[in-house]
Amino acid sequence: MNAKLESRLRYLAAIIVAGAVASIGINLVQGRHTIGPLMAGFAYALVTCVAIGGVELFILRGPMMERLNRLSFIGLLAVRSAIYAGIIIVIQLLQVGERVAGFPLQTSIADFGVSIAYSAAVSVILNLGFSIANLIGPRVFMNFVSGRYHSPVEENRFVLFVDIAGSTGLAERLGGIGIHRFLDRTFRLLTESVVDYRGEVLNYVGDEVIVTWPERLGAVECRPLRCFVAMRNALRKAAPQFEREFGAAPQIRGSLHFGPVIVGEIGDVKPAIVFNGDVMNTAARLEELSRKVDGGFLASRTAMARFAAAPPFPVHDLGRLPIRGRVDGIDVVGIGAAA
């Protein structure tokens, strides 16, 4: 299955489960313990979550995504809230829950007024949830909600550092706003490959993006390596457009390492989920060394040994390279510029 479609379907399933659990919980708190009200509430939750989740994931984050990204946070909040409210009002007017549970249909204008007010409140709450998840990333959002990293844990992960070459010179020529637009366009394009190969963007740092995979996901089909190659191919295809708009096309270099990483929440005013450990430092230093090798990419032998199959393109052994912080150096391989 396509990685983007699989991700959206998982997200939709999570929305449906959350909505159903919330509906049952609200009914129980209000003292509605019989099967009829529970069925009605569940029907409303199911239809609402499927409708709103489907519109959000397959329309607002699909064909309309580029246009919506031009809006401010408040503007996007208003547009989404209006769309969600419209969907919920239609569902309320159809009285889906009453029909499923076999209850008499509502005819009172006052009842419909309450339903519309309920729809407005729910639409704002759902929209805030989607907006926050979109702002910090769905996986980070779910990790915060679930408390997965509230206490630090150790995980074996692939860590991919990708750096945009020559960005300092471009910044001088394009200016602050110009280089920001250049980097934004580049990172959006690179992120498509991250999604395709089931990676997770950890952070954007200046002209660099850090991507990670848990061992189980990254070992399949050499995903981190394939992701980097896909990034490079995507930039190659987009080069004419970048040349027309910015007078230069982005080039990337990168590094890949594997090992135990400490993952946990840090901070109080603005908490974040951060990754620490020697693996992060080594990957960063490999990225520095990648600037001096043909192909602009280095992968540690440690990472290569974790793949479940051989890479689908040639790699060449570069032997053991000296690296800052490691007395014995590190064994690495490279890939060609045309891989």
From TrEMBL:
Q: Please list the residue ranges annotated as the Guanylate cyclase domain.
A: 158-287
Q: Any keyword Membrane?
A: yes
Top-level taxon of origin = Bacteria
Q: Provide this UniProt record's keywords sorted from A to Z.
A: Lyase, Membrane, Transmembrane, Transmembrane helix
Could you tell me the Gene Ontology terms of the biological process aspect for this record?
A: cyclic nucleotide biosynthetic process; intracellular signal transduction
User: What stretch or stretches form a coiled coil here?
Assistant: none
InterPro entries per UniProt: A/G_cyclase (IPR001054), Adenylyl/Guanylyl_Cyclase_3/4 (IPR050697), Nucleotide_cyclase (IPR029787)
One function term, GO molecular function aspect: adenylate cyclase activity
Residues annotated as transmembrane: 12-29, 35-59, 71-94, 114-136
Report any Pfam family annotated for this entry.
Guanylate_cyc
**Broadest EC class assigned to this enzyme:** lyase
Q: Which Gene3D superfamilies match?
A: Nucleotide cyclase
Per the UniProt record, which EC number(s) apply here?
A: 4.6.1.-
Identification of the protein by name:
Adenylate/guanylate cyclase domain-containing protein
